[in-house]
Write a structure and sequence with these properties.
Keywords: Signal. The protein has seven helices and 52 strands. By secondary structure, it is mostly beta strands. The chain has four domains: about 90 residues, Immunoglobulin-like (Sandwich), CATH 2.60.40.1120; about 140 residues, Ferric Hydroxamate Uptake Protein, Chain A, domain 1 (Beta Complex), CATH 2.170.130; about 350 residues, no CATH class; about 190 residues. The chain has a 26-stranded antiparallel β-barrel. A seven-stranded mixed beta sheet has the order 8-9-10-16-17-14-15. Helix 3 crosses helix 4. The longest helix has 19 residues. The N terminus and C terminus are likely disordered.
Length: about 950
């Protein structure tokens, strides 16, 4: 009995002691960003030694929680809620009531946005979004382009343009290296999807920013394809051939060969494309790179930025080939070799060859407003072009040691063109009476040679962000042309014949442009986040144009009579010295820089034919500023401003009359000044990997002082026009585009909405009187996409646009609407069969000037069947089933409204067979 009494007493004392040391633990749960109460969240206390649950409760409607009778000691406090991230904290409970105060919880979506997100298939780290390729199923033998279409946030349109998170992809790398130069389409079309381990999407900084560590605001949306290790030790490729089934007709054919072989860091790829369906022709940008167009001028400003501008006239007599129109036979071949040795030496070599044989019938109707008078011009043109080009890109990068490197770059391009044009045209007045008539034959033989070489030396000092670099470059463009012009040109008065001028001439042109540039840059950090950049740039541009025109002599039967008014020898020398300084700030979320350069430019122009010299000099101020704010992962705001000059081209300066079109001639102006452009842009981009939505906007403004435009001296009686380049002021343009893409998860449907507005005010000069032209283009597009693996693929898009133009010559507004509807459907059945079809409806509104509604429908279909584990594919396709493919374009600019029609390849069918091959033993087993 005493023992029991003692035991009870001891237990009583212990329980009393424990009770006396217990306390209450309280607090409030609120959402971190909104400060709103969080209801029904679990609040638990765990013992730190073994994480066993000790006590728990739930928060009330006000977010309050209260844990009673908590024993003093150390605990782990943890909250749990379905919509909020867990909160975990080590706490100590002592005697007396303990108040935790307000605990801010973060929603799970926001929490995931701020850390590395790993969902198995997708992960985000910093600026890079990575996709595990094997988790996104594509068809057998699919290329990378098909894989990209499956990735959330990435789109590939029918023209092969890739957009990631709403931004256009400008570079596609393979294991961090360029593939077939800087053409994004080559990698995604020529590499197999099953060779890719990971797809990385990021904003690639400029080479200068990557080297110095100082963000200059210049980025390019880039995709890097990381290959599987086993695919770096093998080969794969594709052979595809198709032909028309009817030999009695003008048969269509295509044959494509693609091959890739990888061994470690050595990559070797090749392609050969041959056909007559217009595939893989040169687009306008390629043509400009090859020196193929001179009515579009490519210019590089003092900061190295490239811009394109229409210069008003085909002054170099190079025929324009639009591969969307006409009939074309082409051969396109290329080779890509890259290798890296000891992680110190990298070689990248990419030769390409292209051959085109092109024919087209073109008809054009234009209406030109001259004061109260309207001139109506009708022309028809038959073009035949045979041209080829070979280009080679090569880079060799050497890391001399840990702080020094040197990079050599070389580019060559050789272009040969033979062409002829047959033109018939006439011009009438508003009353329908004939003003002039023309028949013309123009033949061209030209050779172009473009060479480029550069050396870049970089050095990093021991102190971080202290760098020194020297970049020197040289490029030249040489053109030799031999042209023959035969034309009959008739003038009319009151509709009656008045005079005729016949032209039979041989035109020989030799033109050379050379540019030397040296750029020295030094960066110096001033603190952890600030840095100064000092630079000095020297450019020396020389050009020489010798143009001789000979009349045909009936006496000698040769072209040996020099036409002095159409012949000229001209030289130019333009030198610019530009010191510059820039201050930059780099932090995790905010980056900005601002600074300026001071340009001292001298012109020395020599008209050797007339023995005249033109000298002038300019001092320019080149301000620049950029700001970026990354307020959360995958979301940023950017602001950019830049001021830059543009020099007139030698064609615009040379006082030479071009009479290739007798009633529309051009004349150079050696008194031209350089122009100066202010450009401002503000852009915002946001992407959520969790909700699969993107949101982007861009607004930009551009104004140019001393813009190089043209004065048109138009004789309203004869309709003869002479265009002379001049400087004008008051030119302005503004652009706005908006994009919103999201996924409706319940029905697995991707939706993209894209409105846009473009406004341009240009000053045009007609008969030395200035007029304002206002052009407004607005549009709205919607895109829907849905697919299910091995079941179906579906996409629907519609684009509506309105074009409005007015001039100060009169109050009339020229306006018309266009609408484009696209539908693509693919259906699988019995796994091996697939039927795909696409439908396009183009609608063009009738107007006061064009009294017809133009609507045409394009319908294509393809049926295919795969064999032997999808290694072989047989197919039949029909293009333009309704036989309505027409090449037509309506346009409005300045004081001109026009409609242009071209030949198009209409209905045809082909039967084809393809073989997708790869290393033996790698064929996927079903």
């Amino acid at each position: 009995m005493p023992k029991i009494t003692v035991t009870i007493a001891i237990l009583f004392l212990f329980s009393f002691s424990a009770f006396s040391q217990k306390t209450n633990l309280s607090g409030v749960l609120k959402e971190g960003s909104e400060k709103t109460p969080i209801y029904n969240s679990v609040v638990a206390l765990l013992t730190p030694k073994d994480s066993i649950l000790y006590k728990f409760t739930r928060s009330d409607k006000e977010g309050n929680f209260n844990l009673k009778n908590v024993k003093a000691g150390n605990y782990i406090l943890m909250t749990a809620h379905s919509q909020y991230a867990d909160y975990v904290d080590a706490i100590t409970v002592e005697e007396g009531e303990k108040k935790m105060g307000t605990i801010a919880l973060i929603s799970k979506i926001n929490a995931l946005r701020e850390v590395i997100i790993k969902t198995g298939s997708i992960k985000i780290k910093g600026d890079t979004t990575s996709y595990r390729a094997s988790d996104f199923k594509v068809g057998a033998n699919a290329n990378v382009e098909e894989l990209l279409k499956k990735l959330p946030g990435i789109q590939v349109d029918k023209n092969g343009v890739i957009k990631a998170m709403g931004e256009t992809v400008e570079k596609v790398l393979v294991d961090g290296e360029e593939f077939f130069g800087d053409d994004p389409g080559m990698a995604v079309k020529n590499l197999r999807a099953d060779a890719v381990k990971e797809v990385q999407v990021f904003n690639k900084k400029s080479d200068q920013a990557e080297f110095t560590g100082i963000d200059d605001g210049e980025t390019k949306k880039t995709i890097n394809l990381k290959l599987k290790e086993d695919k770096k030790k093998g080969y794969f490729g594709k052979i595809d051939a198709a032909n028309g089934p009817l030999t009695t007709m003008d048969s269509r054919y295509n044959s494509n060969l693609m091959f890739s072989s990888f061994k470690g860091k050595r990559k070797l790829s090749a392609f050969l494309l041959n056909g007559n369906t217009g595939q893989d022709g040169l687009d306008w940008q390629d043509s400009e790179k090859f020196g193929g167009r001179d009515d579009i001028s490519m210019n590089m400003d003092d900061d190295g930025n490239v811009s394109y501008e229409w210069t008003g006239g085909n002054t170099d007599d190079e025929p324009y080939v639009d591969t969307q129109n006409g009939f074309i036979k082409n051969t396109n071949a290329g080779l890509q070799y890259s290798n890296k040795w000891n992680d110190k030496q990298t070689l990248n070599l990419s030769p390409k060859y292209n051959k085109q044989i092109y024919t087209n019938n073109n008809s054009k109707i234009t209406q030109t407003q001259v004061g109260e008078t309207q001139l109506n011009e009708n022309t028809s043109k038959v073009s035949n072009v045979n041209r080829s080009n070979f280009k080679l890109n090569a880079t060799y990068d050497v890391k001399l040691d840990s702080v020094n490197s040197i990079k050599f770059t070389a580019k060559t391009n050789f272009y040969n063109t033979e062409s002829d044009e047959f033109i018939n045209g006439n011009t009438t007045g508003e009353d329908g009476l004939l003003k002039n008539k023309q028949e013309k034959t123009f033949t061209t033989k030209s050779d172009k040679e473009s060479l480029f070489a550069s050396i870049l030396y970089k050095h990093k000092f021991a102190k971080a962000r202290r760098t020194f670099s020297v970049n020197s470059s040289w490029n030249t463009l040489n053109t030799d042309a031999n042209n023959f012009l035969k034309s009959s040109n008739e003038s009319y008065e009151g509709g009656d014949f008045s005079s005729r001028v016949d032209v039979d001439q041989n035109k020989i042109g030799e033109k050379t442009n050379q540019n030397l540039a040296l750029n020295v840059t030094y960066t110096e950090p001033i603190g952890k986040k600030f840095a100064l950049q000092f630079g000095y740039q020297v450019t020396h541009n020389t050009g020489e144009s010798n143009y001789l025109t000979y009349d045909y002599s009936e006496v000698t039967g040769k072209y040996d009579l020099v036409v002095d008014s159409l012949s000229n020898q001209f030289k130019q020398t333009i030198t610019t010295n530009k010191p510059n300084i820039k201050l930059s700030y780099n932090a995790k979320k905010i980056n900005y820089s601002f600074g300026s350069g001071f340009g001292f430019t001298s012109f020395d122009l020599q008209d050797q034919t007339l023995n005249k010299e033109y000298k002038r000099s300019y001092t320019n101020f080149f301000p620049t500023a950029n700001f970026s704010y990354k307020y959360k992962s995958n979301s940023n705001l950017r602001f950019n401003y830049q001021g830059a000059t543009k020099q007139p081209t030698i064609d615009q300066l040379q006082p030479l009359r071009n009479n290739q079109d007798f009633f529309n001639q051009t004349l150079g102006n050696p008194d031209l000044k350089q122009s100066f452009t202010n450009s401002i842009s503000l852009s915002h981009n946001s992407y959520s990997i969790l909700t699969e939505s993107h949101f982007y906007q861009n607004i930009s403004f551009r104004t140019t002082a001393n813009l190089i435009s043209y004065n048109k001296d138009i004789d309203p009686e004869s309709a003869k026009t002479i265009s002379t380049p001049i400087n004008t002021n008051g030119n302005f343009s503004g652009n706005f585009y908006f994009g919103y893409g999201f996924k409706i998860k319940k029905i697995d449907l991707h939706v993209n909405l894209n409105p846009s507005v473009n406004y341009n005010k240009s000053v045009l000069s007609i008969n030395n009187k200035t007029n304002n032209s206002n052009t407004l283009n607005s549009g709205f597009s919607i895109y829907l996409n849905k697919s299910k693996e091995k079941k179906y693929e579906f996409s629907l898009s519609n684009r509506f646009s309105n074009n409005r133009n007015s001039t100060s010559q009169n109050d009339e507004i020229k306006s018309f609407n266009t609408n484009n509807l696209d539908l693509d459907i693919g259906v699988y059945f019995r796994e091996k069969w697939k039927l795909s079809t696409d439908y396009n409806l183009n609608s063009r509104q009738k107007t006061v000037d064009f009294q017809t509604n133009l609507t045409n429908q394009l319908w294509n279909a393809r049926l295919q069947r795969t064999f032997k584990n999808d290694e072989f594919t047989a197919y039949i396709l029909v293009r333009d089933i309704l036989n309505q493919n027409i090449g037509i374009n309506r346009y409005v600019y300045e004081n001109v409204i026009g409609e242009e029609r071209n030949d198009r390849l209409k209905r045809y069918a082909m039967i084809g067979f393809s073989w997708n091959f790869k290393n033996k033993g790698e064929t996927t087993k079903k």
